[in-house]
Design goal:
homotetramer; about 210 residues; mainly alpha; Arc Repressor Mutant, subunit A; Tetracycline Repressor, domain 2; about 0% strand; DNA-binding
Chain lengths: ~210, ~210, ~210, ~210
DNA sequence: AATGAATGAGCTTTCATTCAT
DNA sequence: AATGAATGAAAGCTCATTCAT
């Protein structure tokens, strides 16, 4: 029994080892230019071994995405206890920025391959983006009913925010020097967005 | 002379033909999975012919980017006659959305390859984004001095807007065509952004 | 351990197998017209296998040269026990002729490609020819001091002999019928050369 | 008529122009690596033009060989007025060394391709080498009968001399230019050879 | 006669995947 | 379970040759 557990643990570690290695190589070279040989080398296993854990190079990528999605979801589900709107939004953004920051290389690969690959895009969009999207929509609608936010079709602002977020990732690629720390960035973005949502004094709440 | 002109024109058409074909195939398959054979087939020329016009597959991609950058720049330079801020921003966004819409396939390829390829990223960032970015910064600063906008470090709002824009492109991948027509999208986005920029009554203009 | 040795041996055999095959095909077709496919076929391996042993087609050729140079050197270093001059020279020439005969295909390729390729020429000239050359020069000078040979600048006779030797290889290409057995050829050549070197009676030993 | 002649002359010039260009490029790159494009460029004509004068790239090479053979033959036929043997041989060698020197690059290509190509080898061997060979054989036999030279099967010395000659060409590859001027080389070689052929005093003339 | 754009066969090389050990 | 040598399909690219102008 002990042995069994140790064995299973070992297997999981091997898997993780390979996933980590592939994440690194994919990130550096892109999916196509990454070779199994290099990934195997990075993971300190033989090429053939990888095929004992993953059916194909592609499945390696899919597993990578799954792992990332899973981690993201845990974070995404921990809805910030909404004190003020500013705090809520800042925390939401900061958490995501931090997650992205930690997995920047991986995110780049995923974003990259996502553009061509429906199978890759789907879990990402459906599981991650839609979660965040609905959280934001909830916030917007709740606050609109409370008379704090303008009454808007949530589609535009939600997508603008999320898009903006993705955009920062992309744009950030080239401005390493310029990049603000996640907290600062989150705070300023939240401010910018909120001030576009807040009902201005003297305006009808509708 | 007449003949010569006709020949030159023909050559340009051939070039365009191949660029178009490659844009299509690159977009469908991605740069790596796209084959010269398929591009040649799409362009109705022999494989070798492509190498009479482009030194390599990669140069085909670079030429594609150049062509797009050039077209974009012409548009970027035609600064909308700024009547109201809303109109200015709406027009700016609408023009870009339209350009992107027209070249969606191309944009996808470029965005995709940009992430791994410094040589590809550079002209895009330096030539296009920086132009748009400085236009927006100008607007923000001018209006801020006039007391209409809040005084902000332009970095955040400018990048939020552009990032949001890129984000819409990405998000648009999953939905065949935008749900909203470019004009409507532009208008709503402009509204969203502006209301975040406008000085609210009772607030210090600084 | 046993296993390991067997494996290493197998690998060396494989390598040899490919080198032999490439020598044959290179000899028949010349370096450029020889295709990897044909070499692989001749060696009974897949095309890709060749690239597990040699980095490129060119390296295959270089390895071929190295192998030949190595074998030649072993022979070249075994200086014939110099009984009479005639025997010494005959043995020297015969050994070389035999070596060449055994590797005729290979020598053709090397000679052929040597003419254009400095990198190929260099090891051949520096390692093989210079060894033989200095052996001959030694002989000439020793004998000259002993008063048996005429005192000559060794350059001409040494190069004439070696050149003649190479020339026989080249000229021999077309006269398969005419070719004398190596021993006979060596003996007659030695005689011819020596009688040009021998001090004639009544002549000053210098 | 005048026009006609001018035209024909022009055509011959064109041909010569292309042959010269091809000789240069073949010599620099070798037959296979030489491209029609480069030859055409060197000759200042269009690629297609070459095919109006020569059926194929290969025929270009064959024509080149023919031209060289022809020039060589003219020289080979002008048998040196044989004063002394030394003078005869020296002149013979010198003439050939000079011819080779002038066409070194071309000779290399021919030698190179000759090794693989029966069709190329044949005219060279049959027309040039056999001419020189028989001249030498004549000399040897005449002098043998006169009691000046040893009675030998002419095969060995003739081929040794010619081989030596070829050898000097090959060996010369590594040294930019011969160390010795053609006259000096020819004289010393003649001396070396002759002293191997001359009947030594006290020996039977047979 | 001269041109040079178009052609496409054929080359070297890479690399995901298999499988005997 | 792990290995890594062998595989061979498939890709980018070159270039002799053709032919419409």
């Amino acid at each position: 029994m002990r042995k069994r557990l140790g064995k299973e643990k070992l297997i999981k570690e091997r898997r993780a080892q390979m996933l980590t290695a592939s994440a690194k190589v994919f990130a550096e070279k892109g999916f196509h230019k990454a070779t199994i040989r290099e990934i195997a080398g990075e993971a300190n296993v033989a090429e053939g071994t990888i095929y004992n854990y993953f059916r194909s190079k592609r499945e390696l990528l899919l597993s990578l995405v799954s792992a990332f999605v899973e981690e993201s979801l845990q974070l995404a589900m921990t809805r910030p206890s909404s004190k003020s709107d500013k705090e809520f939004l800042t925390t939401l953004l900061k958490d995501r920025f931090t997650l992205i920051d930690k997995n920047m290389n991986l995110v780049r690969v995923i974003l990259r391959e996502m553009m061509l690959d429906e199978e890759l895009r789907h879990p990402f969009f459906e599981q991650i983006l839609s979660k965040i999207s609905s959280q934001l929509e909830d916030l917007l609608e709740t606050r609109a009913e409370e008379g704090v936010f303008r009454k808007l079709d949530a589609f535009i602002p939600v997508h603008a925010m999320m898009g903006s977020f993705l955009g920062f990732i992309l744009l950030g690629l080239d401005r390493k020097g310029h990049r603000l720390p996640p907290e600062e960035l989150a705070s300023q973005l939240a401010d910018f967005f909120l001030n576009g949502l807040r009902l201005r004094s003297g305006e009808e709440p509708t």
